[in-house]
Amino acid sequence: INNTNKFEKARHVSILDRKLGVDATITFLHKLNNNMRTIDSINIDESLVETCISRFKHLRLLNLRYSKLETLSSSIGTLKHLRYLNLCGNRKIKKLPNSICNLQNLETLILLQCEDLEELPRDIRKMVSLRHFVIATKQMRLPANGIECMSSLRYLSFYKCPRLECFNEGIQRLTALRHLSFLFCESLISLPQGMKHLTALEYLDITRCEKLNLMERDDYPTSLQTLHIGGLPQLVSFPQGLKGSADTLQFLCIFNCENLGVLPEWLPDLSSLRTLQILFCPKLSSLPEGMDRLTALRELHIVGCPELRRDYEREVAKIGARWSNSVLRIRSFVALSKLAVDFGRESMLSLQWFFSSRHAPMIV
Questions:
Q1: What SS3 class is residue 317?
Q2: Is residue 181 part of a domain?
Q3: Which is higher by pLDDT, 288 or 313?
Q4: Mean predicted confidence (pLDDT) in 248-255
């Protein structure tokens, strides 16, 4: 760090030593070439950020994760070439300067675990190049004509937005969106309207949104490939609108839905489904008829569903090794290569015996 010549041609620098003091770090930064493209640092403070902004006007990537920032300098808006800004884990930061919206070339903004952030900047709509946006906010409702104007968005995640209740209209404008997630939004009562118009959306994750009732809306995407649904105590049955992705869905995970009693009758119509995970749904008592139509299924996981176990045991006691539609006709799953079922040791032995030597999935 004391050799100036060593860093003359450096364009990308990571500062990961937590023991390096502020003064030593600033001294080091002043040794670097002004044409730096990447600064990757942890545990950085406001004075170090100001030094980076004032010296390195051509920065493309600024990674300030897990620092102790309480404010972000308004001069951040002068980094006209910045493409990537990561503020993940800055738990004390309460407000972002509106000048951040001047970053017209910014493509990634990560606010994950910025738990004290009160609100998004008022001119957020100006960030027209943003493609990857992870949002944290204490707002009950986002500003109108905000994220709906970000037509370049590919990845949008709402993570730990504890007061967020609903959304403005206009999400249908995000026609390039491929990934959408709502995670730990405990006050959320409704999803955005117009989701069926998100024709590029492939990934949807709805996790730990305790007040959300999916049955109140039938407006869902029609080209999903991956769907995670979990931690939704309001979920008793599945909305019919999710059937729109029957031809495209490849991965379905349903977990920790304590009041889910039945799976949709259209589940066997998921012709492209490769992985099905049903985890810790204690009231789920049976699977829909026609499960043998899931001929593309490769992995099946059923864990923490005691009512399904009792149903399985009744059927095995009644018909031995022949499975009925009310349990699982596993032999019809010709592509199955992995099976995880928590039905006990005896059930595992019967499953192993049930499969022929030609087609025996890995049983875990």
A1: helix
A2: no
A3: 288
A4: 98
